[in-house]
Amino acid sequence: MYTEKVLDHFSNPRNMGEVEGANGIGTVGNAKCGDIMQISLKINDEGIIEDVGFKTFGCGAAIATSSMATEMIKGKSIEEALQLSNSAVVEALEGLPPAKIHCSVLAEEAVKAALEDYYKRKEEAK
Amino acid sequence: MRKVYMDNAATTALAPEVLEQMMPYLTTTFGNPSSVHAFGREARTGIDKARQQVAAALNAEVDEIIFTGCGTESDNTVLLGVAAKYKAKGNHIITTNIEHHAILHTAEYLEKNGCEVTYLPVDQYGRVSAEQVAAAIKDNTILVSIMFANNEVGSIMPIAEIGAVCREKGVLFHTDAVQAVGHVPIDVKAMNIDMLSLSAHKFHGPKGVGALYVRRGIRLPSFVMGGGQEKGRRAGTENTAGVVGLGAAVEMSCAHMEENAKRMTALRNRLMEGIEREIPEVKLNGHRTERLPNNVNYSIRYIEGESILLMLDMNGIAASSGSACTSGSLDPSHVLLALGLDHETAHGSVRLTLGDETTEEDIDYVIDVLKKTAERLRMMSPLYKG
Predict the structure, then answer these.
(1) Cα–Cα separations (whole angstroms), residue A112 to A73, B203, B225, B288, B380
(2) Closest residue to A58, CB basis, from B307, B311, B328
(3) What angle do the packed helices B16-26 and B38-58 form, to 10 degrees?
(4) Catalytic residue set of B
(5) What SS3 class is residue A27?
(6) Of B60, B218, B331, B345, which has the highest C-beta tally within 10 A?
(7) How far is A8 from chain B (nearest CA, A)?
């Protein structure tokens, strides 16, 4: 039911763990539904995502979409990361079963939540 | 890579001895059992023998056995049949909240069509008591349907006690024994069972064939309408090879039941001890001793069931889970929730069901892989702080 790409990201997840010295962390989902995703970002003064990490409680698709999402925003600017859509993640994974599309939505939301946290922290630091 | 099949509650491998007995009916003995000629009579002989084998396995009479297409059909026949037949007597059915969907969804359908259904809540181990059943029986109760053993957590119900209560109160008693037949001793007379469902592929028989025991004196409407097969109790040309396979498999399973149960219980306990020794923060689902000899079910805290299954699968191990992602809905297994598990714990369940071919080496391999799987997935989990 999963593509080879999904299985690859599930068994060899990229950017797994929490980034040290992260300045933006977003957590979405809840245990009741069976998916929790946490994305941590380290953004430099030029607004470039230098490092990114994920931690996920969830199914194979949840882990694969988190992994893929981190790969897609690493080294990108905040503006580019904000453009990340769930469908782009699905496409990059060469498809997801219909029942798993919500995992890609969660990945998009986790990235946005982490960026929001980054802005919030920046605002508070002023 | 080592291959370990530990999903025997889902289905079992067809035993070579069973296939051997089926082969003539798939090839040379192809006649329609209803035909009067020699071809038909020969096929009929196979069905007659299978009926004797099933009756002997349950301590039933030969004319009390009806062959069906599967366990689900047997369950449907009972619920829909009793509700229709005894409409004048009442409309109340008693069951439990951890039945298989073949019972639960049929009960829900009946509720929408004028029946009243009581779903007895199970205790934390997945069992109901005969007292609960006795207290729930009312003047309009027409049927009690309680599974013999649960498919997910393996808990075994006090069937003999429930049977005695139902007989005393004059209420029909059906048990879905799909997970129990061939694995634990069953005596429909001693246990006061009026109707019982079983399925061949759960005890090394073929798929696509089941049976229903209906005690003499009870006449249910035929679920499949058509010809007069099975004495008018189930229409449709018999699945001769399947029926022969069912008979052979049930005879074989019952002949080796005691030794198999003993061997399986030892392996099961080895697996349980290993999991509890090697993986911290696990929870056994179901009863520690009152469970099927081949059933192991644990929740592994902080991780999710489908990802456990994927990782086991990548290591050649076949298992199952009650997580939402494997049930095709947003909710985890109704059985685990009925046992009182919270959603997170239910999502992290893994069921391992052993079979005749399971070895000690398989058990040790599974413990090792499961330990590594838990460690790896916990490292990824935001819930795990250990």
Answers:
(1) 11, 52, 59, 46, 20
(2) B307
(3) 150
(4) 325
(5) strand
(6) B60
(7) 11
Q: Is A56 in contact with B311 (Cβ distance < 8 A)?
A: no
CB B78 within 8 A of CB B145: yes
Q: Which residues of A touch B381 (CB under 8 A)?
A: 36, 55-57
Examine the domain organization and report whether B161 and B85 are in the same domain.
Answer: yes
Give the pLDDT confidence of A10-49 residue by residue, as tens digits.
Answer: 999 999 999 999 999 999 998 887 899 999 999 999 999 9
CATH number, position B124: 3.40.640.10
Which CATH number do you get for residue A59? Answer: 3.90.1010.10
Domain range for residue A13? 4-119
Task: Give the predicted TM-score (pTM) of the model.
Answer: 0.94
CA B74 to chain centre: 12
pLDDT digits (tens, 9 = 90+) for A57-102: 999 999 999 999 999 999 999 999 999 999 999 999 999 999 899 9
B378 touches chain A (CB under 8 A): no
Number of domains comprising chain A: 1
- Judge contact between A49 and A24, C-beta under 8 A: no
The one-letter amino acid code at A59 reads: C
Residues B175 and B312 in one domain: no
DSSP B180-212: TTTTS---TTTTT-SEEEEEGGGGT--SS-EEE
Task: Report which secondary-structure segment, H or E, holds B344.
Answer: helix B343-347
| Two tokens, residue A93 | 């994974």
Chain B 327-366, residues with CB within 8 Å of chain A CB atoms:
328, 330, 332, 342-344, 347
Q: Which of B199, B233, B248 is nearest to B53 (CA)?
A: B248
Nearest residue of B to residue A58, measured between CA atoms? B304
Nearest Cα residue to B100 out of B74, B66, B135: B74
- Same structural domain for residues B150 and B275? no
The letter for the amino acid at A104 is: S
